[in-house]
């Protein structure tokens, strides 16, 4: 299969490093053995400089031949079609995997992102604590009963759910041993470690390039 191109920001501050969502796509490529290149758009004028590729001025976005996608979830589902490393071949397993992939985005991340954003910007709670607790309790109850979300095996749904749950502010929210063990189990995977290390190295090199320009 041909290589894909993952687009991300050319530089970010220290704090989001290791969490910029291009990591999800790098990780999926590592899991599936898909070759990839990383290309960049400018951090400095990100709100306006690539709206033709990402209508909200964000990253990542993906080129897979003629197919051009924004939204990390859409990119993951596309990459999951590379063999069956991330998506079961049978229809029932694939449907269950898709269900949990959407749950990671639309039931968990849709609560965790505003919650941590308010927390790091000095407005903890803001009426969201109960909502956050209910969603994290829900996923904890599932993970108490099984190691993987779908089809009794690691899938793209686990990649995404673990990426949502591994955010430090989310991990620090209450004592949830099954979720914690799940995050540890998934992030021990060599493919995650490689993608993570590559993103950290990428932004370190970007610092050096910036310093060279100044
Ligand atoms: N729903 C989008 C969210 C993308 C997103 O939040 N991207 C962040 C980086 S991880 C970004 O581009 N932030 C820069 C900004 O919003 O100005 C996706 O999953 O792709």
Task: Write a concise keyword list for the protein shown above.
single chain; 214 residues; alpha+beta; Glutaredoxin; Glutathione S-transferase Yfyf (Class Pi), Chain A, domain 2; 4-stranded mixed β-sheet; 9 helices; 56% helix; binds glutathione
Q: What would your notes on this structure say?
A:
The chain has 214 residues and is an alpha+beta fold. The chain folds into two domains: 4-84 and 191-213, Glutaredoxin, CATH 3.40.30.10; 91-188, Up-down Bundle (Glutathione S-transferase Yfyf (Class Pi), Chain A, domain 2), CATH 1.20.1050. It is built from nine helices and four strands. It has a four-stranded mixed sheet with strand order 2-1-3-4, covered by helices on one side. A hairpin with a 2-residue loop joins strand 3 (61-64) and strand 4 (67-70). Helix 1 (22-32) packs parallel to helix 3 (72-79), helix 4 (91-120) packs parallel to helix 6 and helix 5 (129-145) packs across helix 8. The radius of gyration is 17 Å and the shape is globular. The mean pLDDT is 96. Residues 20-21, 46, 57-59, 71-73 line the site of glutathione.
